[in-house]
Amino acid sequence: MTDVVQHLKDLIRADGPVTVAEFMRIALTARGDSYYRSRDPLGAAGDFVTAPEVSQIFGELIGLWCADVWRQLGAPKKFALVELGPGRGTLMRDALRAARVVPGFLDSVSIVLVEVSEALRRVQRDTLPALPVHWRDRFDDIDDSHGPMIVVANEFFDALPVHQFVRTQAGWAERCVGVDAAGELMFGASAGGDAVVPDVLRDAAVGSIVEIAPARTAVAQVVGERIAASGGALLAIDYGFAGPAVGDTLQAVKAHRYVDVLADPGTADLTSHVDFTALGEALADSGARVCPLATQGDFLKALGASARVAALKVKASAAQAADLDAALHRLTDAQAMGSLFKVLCAVAPASVQPAGFSAS
Ligand code: SAH
């Protein structure tokens, strides 16, 4: 039994069941032996593979997107390029390499990585050796001396805790994690969800689940406030949907397979699909302009993913060319990552027209 599991069971025995959100927080980040803080989970030898790890074109296209936004902001001499949850630092490395061609961009940038995991900070340090990087635990810890901010978040919001509410005969109840008679973790529910579930979902069928993630909207709100005050943009890419909607999307992944959510807390990745409507509303309420939601496939194609792959293939071997085509397909095809993954963008001032989004 891992320490995370023992800790959860002790806590539940002492104080009663914990919410799904608290379960996620303890399993993923709260302790030194929580999932993200005790390992590098990415890549073929790890638990899951993300877009920047699939192909360099992902980070490169985002780097050029950032440089274009920076130019539209008036090419400020001082600005922050912030990444939330940078994983191995691969996206940032590829983005900066691509944006090198834009005069003035690298001379003006401060790189800020928001990363809670010491284990992953070490990997990021190795990936970005020659660059001055500021690490922060939370977005709130970034002071406003950096000027305008361009914030990128790939598969960050899905890892932040989500509350689940289940429709019972007696109304909505919050889904919790308790301990059964045999001492194993189990799902249960406690009263008190009626006030939280959005009106349009109230009458959903018994058994329906609604997910609400205040930890995600709180980050969106502070990012929105900062952008609205100082200028800049947020680009958030993740798997998710345009809510409100019912559905249990909580999932655990280990060694590239779905596993039981309660089976291995602390040693499996735990995420849920992101409600982009909720994030967008938090950003808009903060004063940023939110662009119409795009799919990852449409966004990358609009940025020239196919042309970038064609350029890389010029000097590639036949095997490398096949890998490039496969990566492009994986990132953009609707049956792969192209449509489940969405891209949310918020900007300020409202006149900034970021590439890849239809004008709103
Ligand atoms: N963006 C990367 C990694 C995604 S995995 C990629 O696309 O490859 C999620 C990342 O978010 C990891 O770096 C993890 O350590 C970080 N993370 C998760 N929860 C966090 C939190 N509450 N605060 C800061 N970083 C967090």
Separation of termini?
52 Å
Q: At the first level of CATH, what is the class?
A: Alpha Beta
Query: Which consecutive residue ranges, at least 5 long each, have pLDDT under 50?
Result: none
Main sheet specs: 9 strands, mixed
Count up the helices.
Answer: 12
Strand content: 15-25%
> Mean of the pLDDT scores?
96
Provide the list of bound ligands, each named once: S-adenosyl-L-homocysteine
Q: Give the number of DSSP strands.
A: 17
Question: Would you tell me which CATH topology applies?
Answer: Rossmann fold
Structure classification: alpha/beta
Roughly how much helix do the residues carry, as a percent range?
25-40%
SSE succession: HEHHHEHHEHEEEEEEHEEEEEHEEHHHE
Indicate the radius of gyration in whole angstroms: 21 Å
Overall geometric form = globular
CATH second-level architecture? 3-Layer(aba) Sandwich
How many domain units? 1
Q: What does the model show?
A:
The chain has 360 residues and is of the alpha/beta class. The protein has one domain (3-15, 28-161, 212-348): Rossmann fold. Helices cover 35% and strands 23% of the residues. It is built from twelve helices and 17 strands. The strands form three sheets. Strands 2, 3, 4, 5, 10, 14, 15, 16 and 17 form a nine-stranded mixed sheet that branches. Helix 4 (56-72) crosses helix 5 and helix 11 (305-313) runs antiparallel to helix 12 (318-332). It is globular. It starts with a helix and ends in a 12-residue tail after the last strand. Bound molecules: S-adenosyl-L-homocysteine.
